[in-house]
């Protein structure tokens, strides 16, 4: 049978803060690459990474990084992103970080609001007997891209810590999932401690006295102002994202039949009433999203003779083939067999 086509990358279209593009732009220039050309290959210009630009699809950032690594003969290139950031590149989160009273409060902000900067990475923090461990999680499957992205993100965060706490700051432990590269000494030079490669996670640990020391730039009032902005941005992002997240869950659960408002609301950690309201704010309903998803997939599956009609019915979550027939007549004005025949005839003409 043919491979199951997915209309959404990883189930949903993740995106990120446009101004983060400045970090990548400077990083490319460090290696003498033509940043404008690299961005253009992803359909972007410098106008697309300004503060009031639309959010940029995460796959475009990933395309830029992947393209760069094909040209850079340095498997540790991601570490150099540490010197490429400015607080404005992270929006309100960058300025809230600078005003944080301690690194611990700063990490709490990163843990909560990092999604605003980019949706394919998240942080979790946990106290251990060695200090505060910061763990990076990514929704990237390609191991080389994930390794480079981890280097970029973790080195950038460590540099942010050093801006607040001083350049002498050193983690007590660094763990990376990537295999040990031939440039492993670069990690020792940057982090100031040994790095454990081929580890089960991407993380670093800072000593407790480093994360809980009052920062010289601490400004509770200024941090509070930016927290209000971040809270509003996160709420807006979550509202805009609800329909897309529902589509992703519909895709995951089509064959199981668990697509009720109650089931989807539970997956999204909200109430059915709140879910319904958020979808209505976006001008849609769960049943409409389900019907649109089935219709789009039906067109793909029925156009592929590798699927039998009964298989298509199953993949779309219909308990009976007759249900698919009724839906097909509503979507396409013809039965599944008629649609397939019309598509085959059209493709051969």
Helix percent band: 40-55%
Number of helices: 15
Q: Average pLDDT across residues?
A: 90
Count of individual beta strands: 7
The biggest sheet amounts to: 5 strands, mixed
CATH architecture of the largest domain: Alpha-Beta Complex
Shape: globular
Which CATH class of the largest domain?
A: Alpha Beta
- How many domain units? 3
Runs with pLDDT <50, length 5+?
A: 1-12
Beta-strand share of residues:
5-15%
What is the gyration radius calculated from CA atoms? 24 Å
Assign the CATH topology of the largest domain.
H-NOX domain
* Helix and strand run: EHHEHHHEEHEHEEHHHHHHHH
Class by alpha and beta content: alpha+beta
Strand order of the largest sheet: 3-4-7-5-6
Q: What's the N-to-C terminus distance?
A: 25 Å
